[in-house]
Amino acid sequence: MLRKTVQIITAVLTNSYYKGFLNGTIYKGKSKLFCVPGFNCYSCPGALGSCPIGAFQAVVNSAQYFISFYLLGFFLIIGTLLGRFVCGWLCPFGLFQEWIYKIPLRKVHLSHRYGFLKYFKYLFLLVFVIFIPILFSNAWGVGDPAYCKYICPVGTLEAGIPLLYTNESLRSAAGTLFNWKLGILLLVVLLSTKIYRFFCKYMCPLGAIYALFNKISCYHIKIDKQACNKCGNCLNACKMGGIPYEDPNSPECIRCGACKKACPVNAITTGFNIPVRKANFRRF
Amino acid sequence: MKHRALQFALILFGSMLVITGIKRQEVHTVLTKAINICLECIGIG
Asked: What is the interface pTM, i.e. ipTM, of the complex?
């Protein structure tokens, strides 16, 4: 309940320029100098902050800069402080997928045999967010924000659909590319009804960045190995496909706390730099 | 303890990178992109 409340408040607060939704425009204030931690398109009519993935591409594909220190620093700070806590608690698109997953359709739980699919999000990060925007540019030295342009279903949902709905001139300019992106969004929505947080697991480059910090982030999960009897309740509760009692801070963990709730012996704790009990210290 | 030192070092290094980015005026590139409708994001450009 607390997590849902935080997710809703974050989504509303970071997208509270309601006039944009009515007029088909976007917010133009200085708060957009700063990035929000989650995936939130800056062209969403309500957005008050910038999307970190969009901002990274905007800097590296510009003619002036080869790399973005501003965004690398941002990823280092947020990743080290929170890791994928951002995905579980602060990302509006994560919340959207959780709602979609509530649609009562038969669910698909991919076995560990398909675990390799999780590496696709790193591929999206490397190819579409880093390599193409940096390496391919036109005669003026300006590259393509490839992930935003060809893949990102968040932009289509939060910006494309509301802006095209309210803005006649944009609607008339939409063509093949918009249809392609709409197709990706529909595919993600469809798969999200079957697979929990499909986009987060397999497609999200921002989740891929934060995943790299999960093992060392200040906010983390601790298992009391003396209390844990390996009953497997946490394993069944984890919808991200993790094995909490073996690897509580796996790169896939979004800190949703489902494992903690499911533990019958309260062996799981979450928080910022939780002190380790002396008796367990040797085991970590 | 090792973890905390690493966390501190990463946050410090991250802050230095952010300050460098601000000094290089990267934030203006971000702002310029963010206050204009991103045609690529919405599937037009």
From this structure: 0.95
